[in-house]
Amino acid sequence: MALNGKYDENIYFNLLDYDQSGYITQFGHVLPNANYIVTKRNLTRHLFDYVIRGSGYIMYGDKRYTVRAGDLVYMRKGVRVDYGADPNDPYEKLWFGADGPLVDSLASCYAGRGLIILHDYDDLNFMRLKSLLTSGGWEEGQIMHLLLDLFLDLSGRAMRKHMVGVEPDLADKIKSYIDLRVAEKLSLDEAAESLHLSKRHVIRLFKDRYDITPGAYHQKLRMTAACHYLTETTLSVGEIASRLGFSDQSFFSSAFKKQLGVYPLAFRKSGGSV
Predict the structure, then answer these.
(1) Is the overall model pTM greater than 0.70, yes or no?
(2) How many domains does the chain divide into?
(3) Which of 144 and 51 is assigned the larger pLDDT?
C-alpha cells in the first residue's frame, strides 16, 4: 500500500492476527483530507467502505468509479485497486477489513465480483459494528450476524440498478441465475437452457471462475440463509427447511450438519458461534 500525503484517520479496532473462522481485522474512520490517496494495492482482506459525506474515487481495472455520501463499497480480497478522496470535496468514511475462511465463503456466495458499489445505503450496520467494537463487549456471533447482513445486502441489491461494477460475463449470469433460486431446488438443465448453453459448459464456466461447482455454491447459499433464519428468527427447523426448498426436514438437517459440522438446533442454541 502506498499513501500519498498525510491524513487524519482513527483506528477503532486493530486485530490483524486474530485466528478465527470469520472476523473483523480492522475498523477505522477516515476524516476529510484532499491528500488521501491509496495506490497500487493488492488487498489482503475483504474491504468495506461507507461514505458519510463528500466524494472520492476508485480505480478498478481500467475504469474510474466515483463514490459519494451514502455509498457502500465492497472490494474483494485479492483485487488490485487504487482509491482516494476527491481533492475538491474530500470524503469522510468509515471502513473495515474482514478475513477468515467463513468470510471467504460468504464472499464466494454473495459477492463474486471484485468491486460492488451500492448507492443510498443505510449506515445502520456500520454504526452497529462501530458501537460493538468500541464497547469492548462484543461476541463473535454478533459480528458474524452483521457481516452476513452486509453480504446479503450485496447479493440482493447487486441484482438491481444500485450496483456499479464490471459488466457481467457468462459466469456472472450463471451466478445470478443461482442467486435468485436460493429457496428452491436447483436444476442445472433449466439453467443451461435459459442461458442457451450446455449443462457441461455451465459447470465448467462456473467452476473456472469461482473455483466451486454450481451445485456446491447453491448449497452454500442455502446453508448461509439457514444460518440467518436460525439466529435471527424463531422459525422452526421444518419451516426453514421448507422456505429453502427442502422437501424433507431430516434431509435438510443432514445437509446442514455436513456443511456446518452441527445440526440446526445445536447451531441455534450456540447463537451461531460454532
Answers:
(1) no
(2) 2
(3) 51
Helices and strands: H and E segment counts in the chain:
10, 12
Residues 226 and 259 placed together within one structural domain of the fold: yes
How far CA 202 is from CA of 128, 210, 211, 220, in Å, comes to 40, 12, 13, 18
- Boundary of a domain, candidates 131, 164, 197: 164
Q: What angle do CA 44, 156, 124 make, to 5 degrees?
A: 70
pLDDT above 90 covers a percentage of the chain that reads: 29
Residue 159's domain comprises: 2-164
Cα radius of gyration rounded to whole Å, the chain: 19
> Which residues, 6 or more positions from 70, have their beta carbon under 8 angstroms from its beta carbon?
51, 119, 120, 121
Q: Provide the CB-side half-sphere exposure for 49 (13 A, CA).
A: 26
User: Tens of pLDDT along 37-95?
Assistant: 988 678 888 999 999 999 999 998 888 999 999 999 999 888 888 999 999 999 999 99
Grid look-up 445470478 returns 176
Using left for φ > 0, alpha for ψ between -120 and 50, and beta otherwise, residue 124 falls in alpha
Q: Which three cell numbers stand for residue 166?
A: 464490471
3-state secondary structure of 41: strand
Whether residue 274 lies inside any domain: the answer is no
Residue count (the chain): 274
Identify the CATH number of the domain in which residue 96 sits.
2.60.120.280
The per-residue DSSP string of 58-119 comes to EEETTEEEEEETT-EEEE-TT-EEEEEE-TTSB-EEEEEEEESHHHHHHHHHH--SSEEEES
